[in-house]
Specification:
single chain, iron transport, cell outer membrane, Plug_dom, transport, globular, mainly beta, five-stranded mixed β-sheet, TonB-dependent receptor, about 60% strand
Length: about 775
């Protein structure tokens, strides 16, 4: 990077530095990280590439600037009282520094100002017409969050409903079996983990929440939003680290992360991440082990061309893999006692087990033809194998005892995704265009789905006897699946980001998807005996952003998506019309305090139609029907950033999700399950400024969730509101860091959400602690 000019002007207070950063084409670089080394002063550049650092004590400093895709730069700087240098600076592009810059800027900052997934173009969040929130690696580290469930509550308006892969976003349940692309990896479909698992974060650099239906880019997904994992990439600089953690209930975790170049030319880069964890639970008999391995390679052909291969393998062995929750007592008057049964009790048997093999391979090719045209091709393959047995409740609790059923499941699932898109930047007069044209082909389903449901024993809840709880193989199954399924999704889309001057941005997208699927029975004991899927449709997206000043934007957006039904079986009354979501959203974003704090305010309404519900008749007890649907509306406010020694992430969300018509699903106006009206989250970390305590950080957080209906068909089944407080203490010195996190400090007894029925529900973790130690080897 080269400095073009430096000017000075007087100021009566302490020193400040202001400037603007551009690239070789003299275009502004937004989102560049600007810091003064060995201080807590830092900021990011705005949409015009400008930055400002104030309140600087006179003295000598080193100014450090970095941004994705550009060579990091440092410059000695002398700040005198009343003197404010203005810097015009130019960054040089560097393919080899790409991943290294990503990591260096995310290690210490909560604030992330761009999201490649939201528009596939690296547009600054300030100019993105959608509510997007990003959890950086610094937040994951400070929270000691090792699964998506453990970080979900830090997102405004999101929560984990239970200990499985089941979440609530904007009032909608996001759950992998029903929402195939709810979880993305680097903006590509193909969830590595099954719905019974908490997604692991061993190789995750940051986690992005894109609120609302996002079908224009990603096809089907939860109407409330999608979660995108940004994985750690190979770096050009040699690095290695070891992390160890110990915690309550026998928790132990160890991981290593090695990265660097192969050879002196630094064309071939590698990264190897491996981890192991084990844990028990506050509930009886629950145990879990995870093994995770993630090697990756990047080859840099030249400045504009690269090839990346990333492999993931995760093995999980568990006793009681599904978290079926804890018991709830039903009173005679129809009300519920949520504190009657002890925490440790579970409906499952000690003989239950789960064994899961998850594997994925992702090959990404990037080629920059010239400054205006870029091509990206991604191939992703995922395979999930599950061998699983489980016990579930049948009927209601009577006299502190419960009847149970036994599930035995063996399934082998796959997803093959091809994504290709070209990005072209051009101008028509004074109007700028960034055009993306892309296509997707996804072949997914299962080669084996062997499921059996049989009656099991009744147990006393307080004194369970598990004798004979596993039915004999000769007993016929009451419900049975034995089939295979293949679904082919072909989609194409075009998107144009239009810039009219510096203040007005327009986003126009249109996608077409075609689904073709078939389920084939493999034996006579398959209950459904076949199912076919035929669906297609257009998905539009329109967004408008206006920046009245350089660091404030207002936006409006119209989003749609459609999801094929998970069942179109003729025996159940199918085929059924496609589920459709339509969202209207307006909001405002601002980068405050010299761009060190980002704030977002959004108001939205989501209409969701054609939800399947049971509609049995005397002739057909399995009949289903599609109803008008639901309406979710509300608002969110969130702030994220770093104010000198204080790092914060906080927000408030209001949501009202109700049925819009009366049917067998429920009555008009009934609240949707697991959808609280109010959610509040705060987490803050303060780095002590005193020299004697340098490296010490104190953190605290709170989460509030208002009452929520546990079952749509029973509006009296209402989980009480809860408030959970956490805290942490950390110390960092050179390459070494140690921290202690304490969760649920008040040992609050609370339920997070239900799966089905009024007998069981997800129970939040009681008070627990974790001790983590990290060491940077080199």
């Amino acid at each position: 990077m080269t400095a073009i000019s430096i000017h000075a002007f007087s100021q009566s207070q302490s020193g400040a530095v202001n400037g603007r950063i551009i690239n070789a084409e003299r275009e502004a670089i937004a989102g560049a990280s600007v810091t003064l080394q060995n201080t807590d002063l830092g900021t990011i550049t705005d949409a015009n590439g400008q930055f400002s650092l104030t309140g600087i004590a006179p003295g000598s400093y080193i100014l450090s600037i970095s941004n994705i895709g550009y060579t990091a730069y440092t410059q000695s700087l002398r700040i005198a009282k009343g003197k404010n240098p203005f810097l015009n600076l130019q960054l040089s592009e560097s393919r080899q520094e790409l991943a290294e810059v990503v990591v260096s800027t995310a290690k210490t900052r909560y604030q992330v100002v761009t999201s490649n997934a939201s528009t596939r173009s690296g547009t600054p969040l300030l100019s993105t017409p959608q509510s997007v929130q990003v959890m950086s690696s610094a937040v994951l580290r400070d929270r000691q969050a090792f699964t998506l469930n453990e970080i979900a509550g830090s997102f405004t308006g999101m929560k984990a409903n239970n200990g499985n892969g089941n979440f609530q976003i904007r009032g909608f349940t996001a759950y992998s079996p029903n929402d195939a692309s709810f979880l993305l990896y680097n903006g590509i479909r193909g969830n590595l983990f099954l719905w019974s698992q908490q997604p692991l974060l061993y190789n995750i650099e940051s986690v992005e929440l894109l609120r609302g239906p996002s079908g224009a880019l990603f096809s089907e997904g939860s109407p409330g939003g999608v979660v995108n994992f940004v994985t750690k990439k190979p770096l050009s600089g040699k690095q290695a680290s070891v992390d160890l953690s110990l915690g309550s209930w026998g928790f132990g975790r160890a991981s290593v992360d090695f990265t660097g170049p192969v050879g002196g030319q630094k064309k071939l880069l590698y990264r190897a991440i491996a981890g192991y964890d084990r844990s028990e639970s506050f509930r009886d008999y629950q145990k879990k082990q995870n093994v995770f391995i993630a090697p990756s390679l990047t080859y840099l052909f030249n400045r504009g061309t690269s090839l990346n291969l990333e492999l993931n393998y995760a093995y999980q062995k568990a006793v009681q893999q599904y978290d079926n929750g804890s018991f709830i007592y039903s009173r005679a008057d129809g009300s519920f006692d949520f504190d009657y049964y002890p925490n440790n009790l579970t409906i499952q048997s000690p003989t239950d087990y789960g064994k899961t093999h998850n594997a994925s391979a992702t090959l990404t090719f990037d080629h920059q033809f010239n400054d205006n045209l870029k091509l990206t091709i991604v191939e992703r393959a995922v395979r999930n194998k599950l061998d699983f047995t489980d016990h579930i409740p049948v009927g209601r609790i009577r006299n502190d005892s419960i009847s149970r059923a036994y599930q035995d499941w063996l399934t082998d699932r796959f997803s093959l995704q091809t994504t290709a898109f070209a990005t072209y930047t051009t101008k028509t007069g004074s109007v700028g265009h960034q055009i993306i044209v892309g296509t997707d082909y996804n072949r997914y389903g299962w080669t084996q789905n062997d499921y059996q449901y049989k009656p099991s024993t009744r147990i006393s809840i307080f004194n369970p006897d598990y004798t004979g709880s596993v039915p004999d193989a000769s007993i016929p199954a009451e419900e049975s699946d034995d089939n295979k399924r293949v679904t082919n999704l072909i989609g194409a889309y075009i998107q144009d980001q239009v810039s009219v001057g510096k203040q007005l941005k327009v986003l126009l997208s249109l996608r077409y998807d075609n689904y073709n699927g078939k389920e084939t029975p493999l034996s006579d004991r398959d209950n459904k005996q076949g199912d076919e899927l035929q669906a297609s449709g257009w998905i539009p997206r329109i967004g408008l952003v206006y920046l009245p000043v350089k660091n404030v934007s207002v936006y409006g957006t119209y989003l749609k998506s459609f999801n094929p039904q998970t069942s179109n079986n003729v025996l159940a009354g199918g085929p059924f019309p496609t589920r459709k979501a339509t969202q209207y959203e307006v909001g405002s974003k601002a980068d405050l305090f010299s761009n060190r704090l980002s704030a977002t305010l959004s108001l939205y309404q989501i209409n969701y139609a054609n939800i399947l519900t049971a509609a049995p008749t005397e002739e057909n007890s399995h009949r289903q029907a599609a109803i008008d649907g639901t309406r979710s509306r509300g608002g969110e406010f969130s702030v994220t950033g770093n104010l000198n020694a204080l790092s914060i992430i906080a927000g408030y969300a209001f949501n009202e999700h109700v049925l819009i018509s009366t049917s067998t699903y429920g009555k008009k106006g009934d609240r949707f399950a697991n959808a609280p009206k109010h959610q509040l989250n705060f987490w803050g970390k303060y780095a002590l400024p005193f020299q004697v305590l340098k490296g010490v950080g104190i953190a605290a957080g709170v989460r509030y969730v208002s009452d929520q209906v546990g079952l749509l068909s029973n509006q009296k089944f209402l989980f009480p509101s809860y408030t959970v407080m956490d805290a942490a203490l950390s110390y960092q010195r050179n390459r070494f860091q140690v921290q202690v996190n304490a969760y649920n400090l008040a040992d609050r007894h609370y339920f997070t959400g239900s799966r089905s029925g009024v007998t069981l529900a997800g129970l939040g973790d009681p008070f627990n602690v974790r001790l983590g130690v990290s060491y940077q080897l080199w």
